[in-house]
Amino acid sequence: MDPHLLRTYVTVVRLASFSAAARELGYTQSAVSQHVAALEADLGLPLLTRRPVAPTPAGERLTEHAGALLLRLDAARADLDRFAAAPRATLTVAASPLALHPRTLAALPATGVTLRGLPRERVPVAVATGEVDAGLVDGVAAPSDPLRLPDIAPLAASGVAEEPLAVLLPAAHPLAGRAGLRLDDLADARWLDAPAAGIPLEQLRAVHGGPAGRGFRTALRYEGTDTRTLTALAAAGHGLALLPLPVAAGTPGATAVPLTEPRLVHRTELLLLAGAPDEPPGPLPEFTRRLMS
């Protein structure tokens, strides 16, 4: 299966248009049509209907595989490119919002750094494809357990911080006076769904287990990355939020109550491409050394 043909096909599916795909890829519309026809001939199956442009059942199944296949190819190219690349004098780090805390920020070199905020799920992809030199990603885990990362490339993950978790409630909430809270007791509560700025509700459902894990109803969805906005929404009574205790503590008009059960922590990990060639002193080795010391 020719990856060039596959990329063209995926672009046509995403844009639902041969002409729009041609403009994005810099091809003629005729070339795009030929690419799709060649892929269909290779597989012996129709992949797209033409009017409207939409994947057939076989095309839908191919689309499910295509993203992972192309990402693996991009990761392999980025991995091999490192062996011929000159040492970098600058450092680009991708980070999910909650992975940026005093420890990780203090480890950044004083100059030559680009810090790129990305959604949590995009950080491993950026590292694997060589968009960035290193990644900082966060998530919920049992104490000392590694995060579950997508299997997209050989990534080396190292834990750099673990923090307790807390439920952020309005100060007048009936549970605000508790010394601790159990996730069991909150499955039917109204929650803020902030997948980029906070702990995603899907992670709460995944780690909770049992029938009640289907709860955690969304009261308001926040699609930004600013944790201060998220904490203000919780303080205003728009829903509960699960956050690292240092982030939640001290929010005006709100109370941060530690999560006591199940035993979970907020974990931050450093991501690098595994098996990197030996590098001379520079911003990446300096950052790694400072972060892990």
Oligomer: single chain
Distance between the termini: 46 Å
> What is the chain-wise order of helices and strands?
HHHEEHEHEHEEEEHEHEHEEH
- Summarize the biggest pleated sheet: 8 strands, mixed
Q: Report the average pLDDT across residues.
A: 89
Detail the poorly predicted runs. none
Sheet-strand content, in percent, reads 15-25%
| Gyration radius over CA | 23 Å
**How many DSSP H or I helices?**
10
Give the overall form: globular
Percentage of residues assigned to helices:
25-40%
Content-based structural category: alpha/beta
Q: How many β strands by DSSP?
A: 12
Which terms summarize this structure?
single chain; 293 residues; alpha/beta; 8-stranded mixed sheet; two-stranded antiparallel sheet; 12 strands; 36% helix
